[in-house]
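Take a specimen:
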Amino acid sequence: MKFSCAMLLQLFFIFPLFLSAQPQTDKKIKTYEKLEHLTIDKIIYYQTPYYLYAHKPVETQYKPTWYWGYCAKNYPPAFKDYAKEANSYILPPKSFSEKQLSDYESKFKNLKPQDYPRPNAYCYSEIYFTYKKLKKKYLMVLSYELEKEIPNLQFNRLDTLKFKMPKDQRIKSSQNSIDPYAPLYDAPAHINYYVLDSDGIYKEGDNNEIYLNIIKDGNTNLELRGNRFDHFLKMLQNSSTYIRSYITDGTRFFETDQPSRDGITVVGGKRKMP
């Protein structure tokens, strides 16, 4: 079961990209907002993360724009007729045959949480951007995938200073304080990419192709920094505005915030949709 599960994941699941945070002398390092060929259109910060367990979106009242694209490659139970519907949310069109999708759905039903090495996924950001050359719109979703659940995780409670500590010092500090967020400091941030199609739906795209040809614009000497959570907070601080999302009494809310040297000003009212 373990071997077949690994093969299944390799064939059907999206493996999000890991972006190196280590500077290299022969590489040009930039953050996303500094890429001249991209325009950042909107940023959503999930202060209360959007949580998925074993690929299942746990929230039922709110579905992000990438929900159907994600489920098309990861969570068949979201669909009434997965084999016939899933390709409508995957790019390029008809990426899989109905038989492939049907076979995956059958195998998915036999998977158990222990078959996933890191079943707990915490989405902390959506970054909407335009590729200027083609005037085409994309979305990157940043998340952490962890082996164990962190109950009631709130990213505003994360001690971002620990990201800058030497690893051994950070581990010792976390052990002494019993920091529940300790697994986040050394976990790689995962990125999934989505493409806004002509029908107005964000669909699951080819991660590798988008990263190499859109994000890096074909430049093999370009390295990106900004996927780690403390880097992401710097992006928020340098933004004119961003949307912050949190859950209160079981309901997800959104508000538009404007950062400044004096702090954060709420410029958009509390609402249930971005």
Summary: Residues 1-24 have pLDDT under 50 and may be disordered. The helical segments are 2-12, 67-74, 82-85, 98-108, 167-177, 207-215, 229-237. The first strand starts at residue 28 and ends at 31.
